């Protein structure tokens, strides 16, 4: 594992892991969730990055500035773009929950993102009251107070998005409603995989079939 810094803030770094032997030139960028809050960090992505490497691809597990830790908008989004800039490669972004938001958002914003996998992604900041409350913490206000930030940050307002998108969502998700993915897929044409009986954290549990679905989607996009 090689630490790579992409800025001077303590949260502006990532961990690049490389498999033994040949691997695709494309790197899978792992973006953790936690509703963009400082109390959650890239330790959530380490087991996923390790499993990706075990299956033959390079993985870059990134940290970023979060709410109450120097983040907020646009700093949080800017950090994900800067982390991708630190790699001399095309990337597939893979993100869970709020990380799924950042994975799809980066696909709309960075030219070297060739595909994205959203695991129970937060994709429409105006849909569902709980999502809107959390988004207000990231964006510094409600849709009525800072509409320009919602237009800039919410993936549902950035369509069309060019790179292929795969949305994986458990139908029993207790934190991010599955309708976040089903509605976005209907509007965008993204590939949608819904998993009956699967909850929010199953998607980031190595060894669980739900994680294997996400991993296989990332491997497919990485080539």
UniProtKB/TrEMBL annotation:
Entries under Pfam families matching the protein: BD-FAE (PF20434)
Annotated segments matching region Disordered: 1-22
Gene3D superfamilies referenced in this protein's UniProt entry, alphabetically: alpha/beta hydrolase (3.40.50.1820)
Keyword Hydrolase among UniProt keywords: yes
Domain BD-FAE-like: 23-186
Keywords for the protein's UniProt record, in alphabetical order: Aminopeptidase, Hydrolase, Protease
GO molecular function: aminopeptidase activity
Protein name, as recorded: Dipeptidyl aminopeptidase/acylaminoacyl peptidase
């Amino acid at each position: 594992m090689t630490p790579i810094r992409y800025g001077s803030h303590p949260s502006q770094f990532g961990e690049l892991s490389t498999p033994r032997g040949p691997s695709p030139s494309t790197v899978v960028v792992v973006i953790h969730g936690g509703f963009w809050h400082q109390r959650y960090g890239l330790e959530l992505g380490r087991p996923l990055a390790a499993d990706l490497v075990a299956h033959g691809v390079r993985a870059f597990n990134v940290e970023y500035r979060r709410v109450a830790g120097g983040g907020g908008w646009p700093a949080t989004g800017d950090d994900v773009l800067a982390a991708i800039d630190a790699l001399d490669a095309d990337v597939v972004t893979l993100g869970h929950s709020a990380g799924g938001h950042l994975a799809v958002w980066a696909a709309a914003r960075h030219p070297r993102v060739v595909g994205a996998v959203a695991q129970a992604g937060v994709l429409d900041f105006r849909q569902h009251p709980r999502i809107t409350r959390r988004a207000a913490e990231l964006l510094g206000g409600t849709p009525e107070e800072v509409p320009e930030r919602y237009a800039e940050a919410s993936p549902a307002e950035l369509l069309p998005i060019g790179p292929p998108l795969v949305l994986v969502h458990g139908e029993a998700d207790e934190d991010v409603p599955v309708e976040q993915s089903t509605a976005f897929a209907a509007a965008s044409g993204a590939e949608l995989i819904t998993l009956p009986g699967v909850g929010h954290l199953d998607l980031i549990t190595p060894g669980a079939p739900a994680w294997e679905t996400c991993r296989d989607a990332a491997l497919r996009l990485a080539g």
